[in-house]
Amino acid sequence: MDTSSLWRAIARAPGFGTLQGSVECDVMVVGGGITGVTTALLLAQQGRKVVLLEAETIGSGSTGHSTGNLYATASRGLSGIASHWGDPVAREVLAARTAAVDFVEAQCRDIPSALFTRCALYRAARFASDHAAIEQEHKVLARLGCRVRLDSGLPGGLPPPSGQVLVLEDQAQFQPQAYVAALAQRAAQAGASIHEHSRVVEFDFKQRVATTATGTVRAGEMVLATHSPKGVHVVHAEMPVHREYAVAFEVGAVDPGPGIFWWEGDEGLSVRILEHEGRRFLVAIGPEQKVGTHNAKAALMAVEAMANSYLSPGRAVHRWSAQNYRSHDGLPYIGRDHSGCFVASGFAADGLTWGTVAARGIAAQLAGQRDTFIERCTPGRFTPVKGGKALLEEFSTMAQSLVKDYVTHRKQEKLVSLAPGDSAIVDSEGETVAAWRSPEGELFAVSSVCTHMGCKVHWNSVETSWDCPCHGSRFRPDGTVIEGPAIAPLQRKQVRGIG
Length: 499
Known about the structure:
FAD/NAD(P)-binding domain; eight-stranded mixed sheet; 10 helices; about 30% strand
């Protein structure tokens, strides 16, 4: 199945070259999403010598597979942050995220392909059990001074909500892939050296050295803008990891126009419209799924079924997913961690706005400017009272995975019984391996042990990948790292006697 996002399908690729040889710089940025590219632009504009390394292509990670929504609030609501941290911190969140959206808008004035549009955010309940969450969020946003109201319905033929609808004015939408590609070109024009297809295969955090297959970079400072920082970092133990599945349809009977439309609850749905070159698309995104423990195909089919049932769309033209890492206490991790490098993570499903906040904050810190909110987001903080539930969730997931896979073992099959398109944890000559047979019949066998911290990987049938349930590392069938904190690939296994 083609899992390219709508955004990447319609945007022009920037086409930067691969790193060649050894270079030195003031700041090395690892990761070519919105966080890394914005950081590289701002630092280059400060006059610093910047090198950015991207493992695949600009925007190929979460940025190019996101929703394209920008908002001052949070996807899980500001009421939780206000409850845990108090109104003053919630106001800091609003201020930082509002400034980030304004920054993106300013950049987009010269990027028509980014399709930046101001719009309202609508939050509705599908079931009566979610009324209280809508009402509580309205109270908090109103108390914090937001332009928010309650309406009785939704626009453009969207299904009637259960109860009143929260409407937050003056939020925004854009084309994230077109934006980050144009921003990368802008950073290069400002002097940054940007390299695609330059995956880091070895880090020396102490010496600030990164090695790729074709070169090395030595830097005075290192920024890990890889969504989840590469290598072993304390924040990995504090972040539940989830995927969200999306389907883009040709617009059918329902066309609400500009707007961010969210339905609360475990069976929630997020909807938006995109117009591109005279074509209109309806994008539907489903609820979060825990990485490595969910049925990817079922999750994607559920999104498509809900959209067809409630929205009467036209033909489905793109299907994809994106990963997010949620902090344990509602605030992102931005700043130096124990490695001495800058990290930016824990954005939950709000990465486009938080990534911009992080880039601006890191650039300010490197310029010697203080930012009290960014300092509050330091990766070294530990707030078990505020984030105890999330910490327990992540520790529980890791413990259950280890018990299930190392003590009780998963059901194993034999390689000989593996049909084209099938995958399994199999027993081969006394060794347990992760195997997949391509539709053409080629067999791929790799170690079933994640190279990050030793958990066992699980198969993702939609994206044909091996996913780790512990910290979200993902690998291709040949073992190559796709994303997550893992640096080394899964070891290839030679299997004898099997065609």
